[in-house]
Amino acid sequence: ALPPPLSEHALLLRRLITAAERDERVRFVELCCSIARGAGDRESDVDVGLGVADESFAGALGDMPALVAGLAEVVDSLGHQIAEWGDVPHRRLFVQYASGVQLDLVVMPASTRRGLPPNSVALLDRDSRLSTPWQPSTLAVDAIAIREWAFLGWIALADLTKHLRRGSVWEALDRLADARRNIWRLWAAAHDLPYPLFGLTAVLDAENVDLPPGIERTVASLDGAELLSAARACAALLSDVGESACRRLGADAPDAMAALVRRKLETLRAEDIPHR
Known about the structure:
By secondary structure, the protein is of the alpha+beta class. It is built from 9 helices and 6 strands, in the order H-E-H-E-H-H-E-E-E-E-H-H-H-H-H. It is elongated.
């Protein structure tokens, strides 16, 4: 049972399970993310995976919008493919209900799920497909991904220096965020957190894990001098965190790229940044 602040979430889940039980094509319903972990609050989405019998998948997709619309009063909804999933068959339905609850539902062929991932709960499991633990590939990370994240962080900072020299502060700000995103991933990996690919979310979901020291200094406004200062702080943090993550996973750190980008940042002066 969910706590009282999640009464609307609980009501929606009960209705979803009832609707799924009435449709034999639905083989499992899996509750995921914060509510499944027991960390949900009033603002949490209801994150659900719904497995459909493979032979019925194509036909069932057309019926899913009506199913979720029948659970509660709908404000609006979106059905689409998740780009990062590539060719994996699925359909994501995001539904905003008038109660304030948001449903984030991914419909997939049942055979694509080989077990129950950590921090998920099986709400319906007709074929015992979710009865055994399963570790998805995104749960952990390897040395190749660690080097890639570190390298991508340095590429972002290299791009940032180019944008600052041009006075393109919006593009510089965008690349600063990209560099920071990879720092969060590396920090999660260095602390052996689950799902490090999700970066900031993985860190905030973890217990007893501090934030990267000085991460607040990597935030800037559209002021060129602020962006340069934040980029230098980001470079220092990327060096430290990247080294830690590479050491833990045995990854080949991009030291040459890091040294080049640090020199670019050190030689760039705030007064040389054009004002547009």
